[in-house]
Write a structure and sequence with these properties.
Helix content is about 50%, strand content about 15%. By secondary structure, the protein is an alpha+beta fold.
């Protein structure tokens, strides 16, 4: 009964102090929501591939360019090194999305080529099919459960035939659970690796010409250590693997599967995380939680006068200080538990947005496992204890005689509040400054000059099965008024072209080969600065300035030599950047083709120059493609593609901005509440100053200035710290902005403005109150 009365008493206190209740509940709920989501994301990141039964024995073969190799290499290593029990190469790169059809229905399909032992090597779950038999037949295929639903609906897919092209098809032999929480990417379909040669002749079980399309997974015998053989593997490659023999690749590493997720290689097809990004998320989440705890402590201590009267009454009725202390901690824990329930509801609402933002696949069901229930229960007790500890100590220490005399209230000088307000402003100023620096840096990267036209150019994948479909689509596109020009190309400067590594002028070089028509060349704004007027243009190439420099040829050179063969130089193209501004540039060869005159040329892309409304034209182009091809349109504006290449940085900005907004909101609400109590506490002093002739302006400035001084102190602390942190962050970019003091001054002025607005109106009401009433009530 006593416990029930305590709860009732606490509920009455919360009801009487609605602002106190709302601010604490909001702050704790929002912060717990963020912390739980970040913890769930971190736990998933740290547990990637933990379900693999043999994860301790699985390794990935890598070079300095990532987990890439040729298809035969894994089998050669198995034959050469007795430590390797089993290999499973997976063909993930240079595999376009295929358009598979079944009974007139056509779907875009992601296909990976894998070793027949895939389901014995890994522990991915099969929903239907035998692990030992499902990929035994060369023409069998396993599809994901999501793809099965899209293609077959409620019909059983097992035994059904899917046509990949006019020449080949597969028979569905199994259904697997969608691949998730693994470095192995999701695929709609798995087929035998040896069949990839049917679609890409450079990838075969016997030829190593395509050296970068395969990820080689190696499983060693129990107790074996393959990492000690790295030098021997490197020597083997330098003697027998062309890309090492020619010096393009120089390093070999064997990385354990359990470490692979946080290995970041540019352009890697494997799923990977960013350890620094995860640490930033965790740090920001903890700061937001600290904000909420500080707000609780701050507001509860500010309310000490009211709670002290209640506690003094209990002391006079015989309650011990220990009982009162535990009661106050229990109240904080109860409020934290209520906030936890609210936060779980909020997580349910925001989870789709969070999954999109973090590029993950978290589910609310994950939080209802035994592990998470224990974690959340313990976490609630910990936060409740931390939140209630200081207020409980402070309030339970009040002596009844001090409360009766009113001296206890005068003893609360808000020392804690001043420290906490300053701390909150330090973090808020730092986060706002960080968001500003990040925004302008990423904007600087996206808008960097690349040496070609990136504006109003729509790049679409050629999804048509034959030339007649492409011609039909072009005819319809030309009827759209907003389309200025249409061109064709094999790749774009940003999206990638064909790579050809070889011996150029006795030097091992990697060239990018770009084939396009004259319309595409003009749309991209590329420039021929020297034309050699070669009659047989089909036999030669235009070269970029960098290509000539790398081969150490003069501008007027007539030919270049590739693997000993002399090839005519048609002319020289002014240098332009491939990919985005952060990537190292490459030499380029350019060849012109006309689709009408070169019937055998199949362009990869259709590019469209738009002079009307971008969004409307995009929809019209998509409609034409999907009407003719009967499959989903794949395309975007070139400038959007460039912006998307900085997706990780943009996501970080968004996250920092969101957290900065939450920090500002929590700080603002806390400041409003604290300033209200502060103004009320000093109401008598304000009234006396008014009675003795102090001007309203003087008293108002005095009260507001007290709070604004905390922002000034916070700025002095935050500015050098955030300057150092952001300078370190910018040092990762070779193309970067200057770190201007205006970023930090702007963040400080912003927080100053927020603080001014928070305290101005309450101070205004206090100085305009009747002095007699203020003295009487205090």
């Amino acid at each position: 009964m006593n416990s029930l009365l305590n709860i009732k008493s606490f509920v009455k206190f919360l009801a009487r102090n609605k602002a106190y209740t709302a601010i604490n509940l909001f702050g704790l709920s929002i912060s717990l929501m963020f912390v739980i989501l970040i913890a769930l994301h971190t736990e998933q990141s740290l547990s990637v591939d933990n379900f693999q039964q043999d994860r301790e024995r699985i390794y990935v073969l890598t070079s300095e360019y990532g987990p890439r190799t040729a298809l035969p290499i894994a089998y050669r290593l198995q034959a050469r090194f007795s430590e390797i029990e089993q290999v499973c190469p997976i063909v993930t790169d240079n595999m376009p999305d295929w358009h598979l059809s079944y009974e007139g229905k056509k779907l875009r399909t992601t296909i990976f080529g894998v070793d027949s032992s895939f389901f014995n090597f890994f522990s991915f779950r099969l929903i239907e099919g035998n692990r030992n038999q499902v990929l035994k037949d060369p023409y069998s295929a396993v599809i994901s459960v999501s793809y099965a639903r899209k293609m077959f609906g409620t019909e059983d897919p097992i035994g059904k035939t899917l046509r990949i092209s006019d020449e080949t098809s597969v028979i569905i032999s199994g259904i697997m659970e969608d691949i998730r929480r693994s470095v192995v990417p999701y695929a709609d379909m798995l087929i035998r690796a040896e069949r990839i040669e049917e679609f890409n002749s450079s990838i075969s079980m016997t030829e190593e010409g395509n050296a970068g399309a395969v990820t080689a997974f190696l499983k060693v015998f129990p107790g074996a250590d393959l990492r000690t053989k790295v030098d021997e593997i490197l020597s083997e490659f330098q003697a027998n693997f062309w890309i090492y023999k020619m010096g393009f690749w120089k390093k070999v590493d064997i990385i354990p599967l359990k470490e692979m997720f946080f290995q970041s290689f540019e352009g890697s097809s494997l799923v990977h995380g960013d350890k620094r990004f995860t640490l930033v998320l965790m740090s920001i989440g903890i700061l937001i939680l600290v904000f909420a705890i500080f707000n609780y402590i701050n507001l509860t201590v500010a309310q000490a006068g009211q709670r002290a009267k209640e506690m003094a009454t209990h002391r006079l009725l015989g309650s011990s200080r220990r009982n009162l202390f535990l009661r106050l901690v229990a109240e904080a824990t109860l409020l934290t538990f209520i906030s936890l329930l609210v936060s779980l509801f909020l997580i349910l609402l925001v989870l789709p947005f969070v999954n999109d933002l973090l590029q993950t696949n978290m589910k609310i069901d994950d939080l209802f496992s035994f592990f998470w229930i224990v974690i959340l229960g313990g976490f609630t007790l910990l936060i409740g204890a931390l939140s209630g500890l200081l207020p409980a100590f402070f309030i339970s220490a009040a002596k009844p005689i001090d409360v009766v005399r009113g001296t206890f209230r005068r003893q609360t000088k808000m020392v804690f509040s001043k420290c906490f307000i300053t701390f909150q402003n330090v973090i808020t100023i730092g986060m706002v400054a960080a968001a500003l620096v990040m925004y302008f840096q990423i904007k600087h990267l996206i808008e960097a000059p690349l040496g070609y036209n990136t504006h109003r150019i729509l790049v679409a994948e050629n999804i048509f099965e034959n030339s007649s479909e492409l011609t039909k689509a072009e005819e319809q596109l030309r009827r759209i008024p907003a389309i200025k020009s249409i061109g064709y190309t094999n790749g774009t400067p940003f999206g990638g072209t064909n790579n050809l590594s070889g011996t150029y002028e006795n030097k091992s070089l990697s060239f990018q080969e770009m084939t396009l028509d004259s319309a595409a060349f003009r749309m991209l704004g590329l420039e021929i600065i020297r034309d050699n007027q070669v009659a047989s243009a089909n036999e030669g190439w235009y070269l970029s300035e960098k290509a000539l420099r790398d081969m150490e040829l003069p501008m007027d050179a007539a030919v270049f030599h590739l693997n000993g063969e002399a090839i005519p130089i048609l002319g020289v193209v002014r240098d332009f950047r491939l990919w985005n501004i952060t990537r190292e540039n490459s030499p380029v060869k350019i060849q012109f083709r006309d689709r009408n005159k070169n019937a055998r040329w199949t362009p990869w892309n259709v590019i469209v120059e738009v002079e009307g409304d971008l969004a409307t034209t995009y929809r019209e182009v998509r409609s034409v493609f999907e009407e003719v091809a009967k499959v989903d349109f794949q395309g975007d504006y070139l400038e959007n593609q460039i912006a998307d290449s900085f997706e990780n940085q943009i996501r970080l900005i968004q996250i920092v901005a969101i957290f900065a907004g939450v920090a500002i909101l929590i700080s603002l609400l806390g400041l409003i509440a604290i300033s209200a109590y502060f103004v009320r506490q000093r109401a008598q002093e304000t009234a006396i100053r008014r009675v003795f002739g102090a001007a309203i302006r003087e008293v108002l400035l005095r009260q507001i200035g007290t709070f604004l001084s905390y922002v000034g102190i916070a700025f002095v602390i935050a500015a050098p710290i955030s300057w150092y942190v952001m300078n370190e962050w910018l040092s990762d970019y070779s193309y970067r902005i200057g770190l201007s003091p205006l970023f930090f001054v702007g963040a400080g002025l912003f927080c100053l403005s927020i603080s001014f607005v928070a305290v101005f109106f309450q101070s205004w009401q206090a100085v305009h109150a009747n002095p007699v009433e203020s003295v009487k009530n205090n």
